[in-house]
Every structure is written in structure tokens, then in C-alpha cells.
């Protein structure tokens, strides 16, 4: 009895497996494929890039002292001339007051020397004193003048020193980082606040010399995460620097971004697109947009394998061309791509 039940169970499993195999073969046979072809037209080229700030400033302390006020944090928008941080300036203020007092004392001495010199000139005119006495009074008057000038300069230095205890924004900007805390000791050269101008951003990429010569018609900039997928930038806003890296033999290229661009920040990933020259460009491989599969960070297509079943292959996409999408890598001319990726995913 047990042998009969086992035989029936194994026969059931075999029949189920055979039915599943037939169903999978039927699904694979019903899949619609399109053969990938290559075009000899000029190809869109691309290169990785990054967003940079044209004006990015790292404000550092110029005088020592404890940080007694910190008015900003990362992400704040500040205006030109706004106070960002303040360093304890009590000692500097006392020094400035002492210098001002010394100037006042020297000025009083100068007034006395000037009056004495005038009296000596009158006495000399009446021949009551000698020429040596007059010369001595004149020398004292000039020495008092020099002393006042020196002390006034010292007072100016002390006043300037007091102003250095207040760190202010040089232009309207966004604060990117504040690497100090309230109460920290500021030292000359220690960074206090980093900020950048959000109205002046650019994209920088490293291109080969041949690629840099292909930017005459302008470029397109793609920054993932922005509402605008691609920005068209005129050639006048593209700058190819007149230097090349001696190791990689690439040249830096800077592309000026529009001033009204929202959401872009320094350090973001970007991609440059431009039209390659026809004689130097490779064959363009295009596939229907409906054949593209996106799973998390992976982009691919189902390609017909040697066994007739679809196989998922990762690809790198270029610019869309109507209902077609250019494939930069991962496919070759002659490959067959499934037009229904959801059905292809069910075939085992």
C-alpha cells in the first residue's frame, strides 16, 4: 500500500514539473523580440562631472581669542556684511582705548610745543634769545608732531585689530559648514565658517583633448535629482582651460550653470552630454524605451540567450531619441531584446 502511494506521489510531481516546463517554454516562445541595429550617425558622448561653486570662501580667524558668539549654522542664508561669528575682543578694546589716550596726551604736548615755538620766534625777532635757543624750540615742536603721528598710526592699528574680532560675510551666500562651536579657541588661520554663492555655480569635468574640441556646439548638463532633467548650455558658457594633466592628459572643462537653477549644490554628481563628431564617433545602438528594465540602481534589458530564454543584462543608457533610447554599453548590434520585460522576468 505504501509503495502504491509513493508511486502516485512521484508521478504527480513529475507531471507538475513537466507542466511547468511546458508553460515556461510556451512563455519563452511567445515573447516578442526586436533585433538591435547600429546606426552610423554621430553619437552623443557623455562624461562624469561634478557641481562646483564659482565663489566659495573659507573664513578663518585672524586674531586669537575665545569664540563668544556664533550666529549661523550650516544651511543658513546670509547677506553681505552680516556678522557670522565674534571673538572675545576685550583685550583688544582696552588696547585701543590706551592708544587713544596716548594720542590725546601727545596732542596736548604738541600744543604746548607749538606755543613755545611761537614765543621763541617772537623773542628771537627782538634779539632776546640766540639762534640755538630758537632751533631747540623748533626741534621740540617737530618731535611732538612726529610723536602724535606715530601714536595715531598705532591707534589705527589697535582699532583695526578690534574689528578683526568680528567675522562678517563678504557677499550674500549660503553657509556650507561651521567647523567650530561656541566657546572654542580661535587661532590665526583656523577655519570658522565656510560659505558659497548659490547664484554662481558651474560643472567641471575632465575630458580628453579630442573630446574638448567637440564642444563647439555647446553641451547638455544632467544633474540627477533636479526637476529639470537636462540643461542646454551654449558654447559661450563653456570654458576649456589652457592646461592639461601630465599624467592623464586630460583638460579641465568648466560649464557655467544658469543663475536661477534651484536645487543644485556644490559637490553634486553631474554628467556632461555633447554631440560627437561623425568621423570619430562609434556606431549608435538604439533600443525601444519599453524594453528598459529599472531595478533600484540597476538598468538593463532582457536579451535572448543561447538556450532561447531571456537573460537580464545590465546596460548604460544615453540620451532618448523619441521612442528609442541609445545604449552606450552592454549591447551589440545583432542582439535580440525582449519588448515585454515583465513577461520575460517570469520565464525560467
UniProtKB/TrEMBL annotation:
It comes from the Bacteria. Residues 100-163 form the Multidrug resistance protein MdtA-like alpha-helical hairpin domain. Pfam families: Beta-barrel_RND_2 (PF25954), BSH_RND (PF25917), CzcB_C (PF25975), HH_MFP_RND (PF25876). Keywords: Signal. Residues 285-339 form the CzcB-like C-terminal circularly permuted SH3-like domain. The keyword Mitochondrion does not apply. SUPFAM superfamilies: HlyD-like secretion proteins. Residues 1-19 form the signal peptide. Belongs to the membrane fusion protein (MFP) (TC 8.A.1) family. This is Efflux RND transporter periplasmic adaptor subunit. It comes from Comamonas faecalis.
Amino acid at each position: 500500500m505504501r509503495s502504491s502511494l509513493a508511486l502516485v506521489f512521484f508521478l504527480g510531481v513529475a507531471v507538475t514539473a513537466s507542466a511547468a516546463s511546458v508553460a515556461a517554454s510556451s512563455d519563452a516562445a511567445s515573447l516578442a523580440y526586436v533585433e538591435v541595429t547600429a546606426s552610423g550617425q554621430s553619437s552623443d558622448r557623455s562624461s562624469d562631472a561634478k557641481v562646483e561653486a564659482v565663489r566659495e570662501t573659507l573664513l578663518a580667524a585672524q586674531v586669537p581669542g575665545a569664540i563668544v558668539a556664533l550666529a549661523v549654522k550650516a544651511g543658513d542664508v546670509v547677506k553681505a556684511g552680516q556678522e557670522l561669528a565674534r571673538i572675545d575682543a576685550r583685550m583688544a578694546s582696552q588696547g585701543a582705548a590706551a592708544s587713544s589716550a596716548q594720542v590725546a596726551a601727545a596732542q596736548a604736548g604738541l600744543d604746548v610745543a607749538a606755543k613755545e615755538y611761537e614765543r621763541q620766534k617772537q623773542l628771537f625777532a627782538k634779539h632776546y634769545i640766540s639762534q640755538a635757543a630758537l632751533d631747540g624750540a623748533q626741534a621740540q615742536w617737530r618731535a611732538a608732531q612726529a610723536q602724535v603721528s606715530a601714536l595715531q598710526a598705532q591707534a589705527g592699528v589697535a582699532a583695526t585689530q578690534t574689528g578683526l574680532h568680528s567675522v562678517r560675510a563678504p557677499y550674500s551666500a549660503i553657509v556650507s559648514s561651521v567647523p567650530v562651536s561656541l566657546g572654542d579657541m580661535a587661532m590665526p588661520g583656523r577655519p570658522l565658517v565656510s560659505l558659497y554663492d548659490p547664484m554662481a555655480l558651474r560643472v567641471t569635468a575632465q575630458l580628453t583633448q579630442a573630446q574638448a574640441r567637440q564642444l563647439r556646439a555647446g553641451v547638455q548638463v544632467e544633474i540627477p535629482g533636479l526637476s529639470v532633467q537636462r540643461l542646454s548650455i551654449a558654447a559661450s558658457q563653456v570654458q576649456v582651460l589652457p592646461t592639461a594633466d601630465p599624467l592623464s592628459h586630460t583638460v579641465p572643462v568648466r560649464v557655467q550653470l544658469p543663475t536661477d537653477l534651484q536645487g543644485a549644490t556644490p559637490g553634486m554628481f553631474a554628467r556632461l552630454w555633447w554631440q560627437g563628431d561623425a568621423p570619430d564617433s562609434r556606431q549608435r545602438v538604439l533600443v525601444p524605451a519599453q524594453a528598459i528594465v529599472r531595478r533600484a540602481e540597476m538598468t538593463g534589458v532582457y536579451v535572448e540567450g543561447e538556450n532561447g530564454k531571456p537573460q537580464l543584462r545590465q546596460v548604460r543608457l544615453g540620451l532618448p531619441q523619441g521612442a528609442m533610447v541609445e545604449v552606450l554599453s552592454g549591447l551589440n548590434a545583432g542582439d535580440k531584446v525582449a519588448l515585454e520585460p515583465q513577461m520575460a522576468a517570469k520565464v525560467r
